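Project standup — Tuesday

K.O.: blocked on the structure for the chain from last sprint. Re-posting the sequence here as requested.
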Amino acid sequence: MFGLFKNDPVKKLEKEHKRLLDEAFRMSKVDRTKSDELTAKAAQIEEEIMKLRSN
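H.V.: unblocked you, prediction finished:
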């Protein structure tokens, strides 16, 4: 019952990953360098998600 309210780290990372990709897309029209940085951060988070899912 208490596991129901437990935070899922994968869901948290997926939410952050989506936010970064959305922000990177928005920034791609304004500042390409910043967009590339955000995309790189999103890629790192994606790697963390894959590691957590494989466990």
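K.O.: great, moving the ticket to review. The first helix runs from residue 9 to 27. The CA atoms of residues 10 and 53 lie 8 Å apart.
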